[in-house]
Specification:
Blueprint: H1 3-15, H2 18-29, H3 35-41, H4 46-58, E1 62-67, E2 70-75, H5 77-92, H6 102-127, H7 135-156, H8 163-186
Antiparallel strand pairs: 1-2
């Protein structure tokens, strides 16, 4: 087995996956990033982020600098070059209109309808009586709404061309924001 080929394949596979590419771009976007900030920005778990960061450090794309209890991440020159190349690749797609297939529109419509029904169920179960929420109840509501918030953020990064679907999506997004605000208002 050729070790150089293995390294090349591993690096290639790393950046042909969405999360590692997002992690690298998130690092490049911050002055003094650290793992928890990067995991939020890349919309991935902390554990997955630290695994990817270890892999990036192994290949010389990043280094860590300890400052007190915080471990900051710094791109190496190679890491900066790859981040620039990724930004360039993404930039080539700006302004390119992709016409979705009918199946994709139907899937998106179904997903929005499904998310809306789940969010409304949480409203009925958690907020219907409009009584103050304990810290424990507020945390439970956040945990229940969290996956739907992340899904909506993910969908928000795509371009929805169909006006009716875009309107429904915007209404779903607004409804989730309303519930998060209501949760804060009712928190005792």
């Amino acid at each position: 087995m050729n070790p150089e080929k293995t390294v090349h394949e591993n690096i290639e596979n790393m950046f042909l996956r969405e999360k590692p590419a997002r992690i690298l771009l998130a690092i490049a976007a911050h002055d003094r990033p650290y793992a928890s900030i990067i995991s939020k920005e890349a919309d991935t778990t902390y554990a997955h982020t630290t695994n990817v960061l270890s892999e990036m450090e192994h290949y010389g794309l990043i280094s860590f600098n300890q400052d007190g209890r915080v471990k900051y991440i710094k791109l190496t020159d190679l890491g900066k070059n790859i981040a620039d190349a990724l930004r360039g690749l993404i930039g080539t797609f700006e302004g390119v209109e992709v016409i979705p297939q009918v199946e994709e529109i139907t899937e998106l419509q179904e997903k929005i309808t499904f998310l809306r029904s789940r969010v409304e169920r949480i409203y009925k179960e958690e907020f219907a009586n409009k009584r103050p929420l304990s810290v424990k109840e507020s945390t439970r509501v956040s945990r229940r709404l969290g996956p739907y918030c992340r899904e909506v953020r993910k969908m928000d990064r795509t371009s929805i061309q169909d006006k009716a679907i875009k309107k429904e999506f915007d209404e779903l997004k607004k409804r989730i924001e309303e519930l998060m605000s209501l949760k804060e208002e009712l928190k005792s």
